[in-house]
Amino acid sequence: MAALEQVPRPTAASVAPDIQQKLAATEARLAKLDDHGKLLAALTDGQSKLAAEGKAIADTLAKTSSADEAVARVAKLEDRLATMAAAADNNPAAGRVPQLAAITGKVADLETTLNNQMSAIRKSVAEQIESRVTVVAESSEAAKSGTVRMDRDVAALKSETSKLGTRMETLKSDGDRLADAMRTVQSEAGGLRSALDGLKGDIEVRLKTLAKPSDVAAAVSPVASKLASLENNLQSVVKSEEDRKANAERIVLSLELGNLKRVLDRGQKYAAELAEVKKAAGGRVDLAALDRYKDTGVATIADLARDFRTVANAVLDAESEPADASVVDRLLAGAKSVVRVRKVSHTADDKSAEAIVGRMEQALRDNRLTDVITEAKQLPPRAVQPAQDWLGKVDARASVDRALAAVDGQLKTSLAGASAAGQPAAAQPAAPAEKPSK
To answer: Which end of the chain is more exposed for a tag (fewer CB within 10 A), N or C?
Structure first.
């Protein structure tokens, strides 16, 4: 009876510490998103400054119209020189005409130089405006894409926070229900203790008059049966509490694993998400295969499919080009590569490079990356050389997919084992208590 009273009561603060830690991590991520918003505001200010600089350059270019005034002044100067030349024809001192002609030539040279310099200035100013406008446009596009990405991340975090809040409320209700059950058990234990004390006193009174072993056994037997039933019920409550904690840990692990899969599908690095999965797993699953690419990420299936056409063309060109090809042969091969025609279907025993490339393409469409690597090993060394980088990306993606599939399998196995272990305990009814004999 003392052991039953000393059983610790579960509190709401100790129901799910992992869920509370997860909520704290979610709040930290929201704070990081606020920092990203401040960075976006700084980028917007920079864009405004660049636009102001472009406007200033345009105003400077508009002010270059003073070159037209310089041209007008040169024209007036030519008119004056022509007048002076006419006067020199009627002047006996005509020896100064060559000097005037030299001055006229210098003026023409100055006019040509001035026009060239003005053209160069206009061209350079236009190029500067165009380059700065291009930089402003690129910064604007980068800011827009960053805003869209942050909005998407904020929406995902809000959804996860809502799910975690729902889980937290469920766990709190379970904890309250277990606390009520424990209080009921303790109250029943107190009643049994008082009944046992009363029975004990009654037995002592009866033993004073007549103490028979059979009467004592008959009086104690119902109490012993009731105590055994309470002990079984208490063990069931403790077992259900342990199962609930294990299920909560598996739920957190599945949520973190879902976050990791979403980051992998976007082709981004996943070091932070992998750390969260390791923290939730607690060393129960093997995640060593994912450590290799956590800082770089792996290519998505869409990226691999988009790059495959170029890789396939390069493989076929390398396989069809003779080893001792001349310059004319290489030019003909380059001309053939302008229009490419490949067969759609091939037989299973066809070992040509075109057939192997076709089977690789079909396997890539079916998301069978292991078959893609297996088919690529059948290509000649000369043909497989252009595809080495692409095959490395395929191998990285395949290894990550295999590791995630293994983790999913382990998680499903643990969930199936927990449900199978809980069914017999729930199906076994408690032993009925015997009524005490009067």
So the answer is: C
Contact predicate 279/249, CB 8 Å: no
CB atoms within 10 A of CB 368: 15
* One domain, residues 179 and 324: no
Measured CA to CA, the distance from residue 200 to residue 230 in angstroms comes to 20
What pTM was estimated for this model as a whole?
0.39
Residue 347 has pLDDT above 70, yes or no: no
In the block, tokens 């028979």 appear at 212
User: Considering only CA atoms, which of 393, 159, 368 is closest in space to residue 267?
Assistant: 393
Position 430 scores a pLDDT of 39
pLDDT band for 230, please (50, 70, 90 cuts). Answer: confident
Which residues, 6 or more positions from 245, have their beta carbon under 8 angstroms from its beta carbon? none
Lowest-confidence region among 123-127, 214-218, 250-254, 288-292: 214-218
- Looking at the fold, whether 20 and 166 belong to one and the same domain comes out as yes
Q: What six digits make up the tokens of 315?
A: 């493989």
Q: Which of 183, 218, 252 is the last residue of a domain?
A: 183
Q: Are 347 and 355 in contact (CB under 8 A)?
A: yes
- Kindly state whether residue 118 falls inside one of the protein's structural domains: yes
What's the longest Cα–Cα distance across the chain?
175
Residue range 80-109, pLDDT digits in tens: 777 766 665 665 555 555 666 676 677 777
Residue 91 within a domain: yes
CATH of the domain at 85: 1.10.287
Residues 363, 103: Cα–Cα separation, whole Å = 83
* Structural domain containing residue 383: 301-399
Is pLDDT larger for residue 393 or for residue 323? 393
Plot region of 340 (φ>0 → left; ψ -120 to 50 → alpha; else → beta): beta
Nearest to 296 by CA among 328, 264, 320, 258: 264
Number of domains in the chain: 2
Query: Is 147 within the bounds of a domain?
Result: yes
Domain boundary residue, one of 114, 148, 183:
183
